[in-house]
Amino acid sequence: MSELEALESDLTSKINDASSEAALEEVRVAALGKKGVVSEKMKTLGKMSPEERKEMGPALNGLKNRIAEAIEAKKASLEEAALDARLATEKVDVTLPIRPEAKGKIHPISQVTEEIVAIFSAMGFDVAEGPDIEDDFHNFTALNFPPDHPAREMHDTFFFEPKEDGQRMLLRTHTSPVQIRTMLNQKPPIRIIIPGRTFRCDSDQTHTPMFHQVEGLVVDKEAHMGHLKGTLEAFVKTFFEIDDVKTRFRPHFFPFTEPSAEMDIGYESASNEIRFGQGSDWMEILGCGMVHPNVLRNCGLDPDEYQGFAWGMGVDRLAMLKYGIPDLRDFFAADARWLEHYGFDPVDQPNLATGLSR
Ligand code: DAH
Which residues participate in Mg(2+) binding (predicted)? Predict the structure, then answer.
């Protein structure tokens, strides 16, 4: 056996014996790397006589190519084996039934948020989100709250310690600042809903320092009060799953809308139960209005070109009303028995095709 043949057979068996990609890489470096045996042999070509080189050149090149190919082939088969091994360990049998001991319920707030998202997604709305910690500009100023206006105090705001530059960050008191963030970053038409946590220093049977809102915002060249009413009426009918829910709009004041309104729904309370779609009593469920021209201007939009409508509603309250939950504070008490009773099946995702709630 010539020297080259011996070398080739030695390298070939090392390649075949490599049991991992790392081991194979070691063989490759030892053979074809800068200081590898084959590379060192290639370097001797320069010192050979022309006749010798004519013979050794092709022989060495052939050796180099065959070794490189053998390494590639071995690499491919090692990779395939590794993938097979991984697939074998990560196999999931999707036909297995849910184990009886798998417990857990969806919290009514998550449920109701998902229901609201499902309803407005079907109407063509996107979901937008923003930070819980806000600055004065997004939470108040850009929303047309005048400086030192009592409305700022009305919100019972949680402020942080002032920063070095005097600026006080705050926990957002409503989801409306995300309207501002969206209008500053996105060209109309805008059609969004904004679910999220909100914070006010307040606590009793119907108020908690942290609560949840869903905000809605539509900005377009033609958006008017009729669209606002139609959108919200369609929403309450679908949400409460009652076709003849009665609604009425009462004039109200918000700094960021003009005109502003509160929407009430008709109900009757009978033997400790609230029934919608009947009776002659009214209950307020959300605030709304046409986006104030100043708010559009603060976001760089021309109020002569664009109009918008918006609304904001309390998720916790909607959840209490729809599912007959008497005390808001229980939402945050982390009581597993309460959740077992009021919670929802995690496998049933709310959607309009199969039903919002079961
Ligand atoms: N931000 C208001 C609040 O927290 C709710 C609200 C009212 C939002 C009217 C709106 C709106 O977008 O148009 O009390």
Answer: 258
